[in-house]
Amino acid sequence: MLRRQARERREYLQRRAQEERLRRQRDKKERLRRALDENRLLPTELRREALELQKELEFDAPGAGEASGNHDDEYRWAGLEPPKVMVTTSRDPSVRLRIFAKELCLLIPGARRMNRGHAELGALVAACRGAGVTDLVLLHETRGRPDGLCLCHLPHGPTAHFTLSGAVLRQEVGGLGGAPLAAPHLLLLRLDSALGRRVGTILKHLFPVPRPDTRRVVTFANEDDVILVRNHVYRRRGRKVELEEVGPRFQLRPYLIRLGTLDQGDAADVEWRWHPYTATAHKRHLLAAPPPAP
Predict the structure, then answer these.
(1) Largest alpha-carbon pair distance within the chain?
(2) How far apart are CA 228 and CA 221, in angstroms?
(3) Which residue in 48, 89, 206, 227 is a FRET match for 125, CA 20 to 30 A apart?
(4) Taking the CB of residue 10, how many other CB atoms lie within 10 A of it?
(5) Residue 253 has what pLDDT?
């Protein structure tokens, strides 16, 4: 088992390194093509290999420079089998965090909750790998208030870290019946930048493929780089559609994406990290694509 995991990890890293080299090569070709089309001086770092790149450009098919491989191919078999999600908490959770973990299992169809106990992170990830779990969700809290969510895709990653805020439980939403358990339709709103698509890919693969006639919708809406998570059911009454929120309700803000799993910690490569203390941090919109120039 350990040898197989090590071999799969090596193959995964080799594929990712190869796709990164191809991406850098495509970027160089695109920069050379723009310089030639606009009749500008070639960039200094491309002058030595400009002739070789130009020869390769002659044989590239139209649109080949826009094709991009998914360096994290852990999701290539998504949809063939329903995901197996495990939800757990930090050690010694409060009552509110336990309730929130139970309601998160209602939000994600097929998710199961596991009592953390005194298990260490390495043993937790190893047990999930052995049980065939595809995603591990770890919840954190501060003084009884849920304030953190870590989402680890198994067996090789990636791991996304989110700040969690504004958690509202189902009984606090009010006017609720039974919890809907059907696989929902997903709405990913304003997650159209490269980072937004990456975060959307990580979130949407927690959910199985829904049936076309399901009456449940889960929304991930981006507002100023904060992802609002809402759970609704709808009913058709003649020409009108009635929408009812069934909870839970919370907000997510990503701040770190690593290419490894939770047990690797700082040893895993950092794919993206939020830098809030730069001079232009308040002007940037990371999850949404910039508006088109007038």
Answers:
(1) 69
(2) 5
(3) 227
(4) 10
(5) 96
Find the angle CA(123)-CA(126)-CA(129) to the nearest 5 degrees: 150
Cis ω before 158 (30° cut-off from 0)? yes
Q: Which residue, chain included where needed, has tokens 């929130």?
A: 100
Q: What is the pTM of this model?
A: 0.80
Strands 135-142 and 85-89: parallel
pLDDT digits (tens, 9 = 90+) for 88-106: 999 999 999 999 999 999 9
Please compute the mean of the pLDDT values over residues 183-209 and round it to a whole number.
94
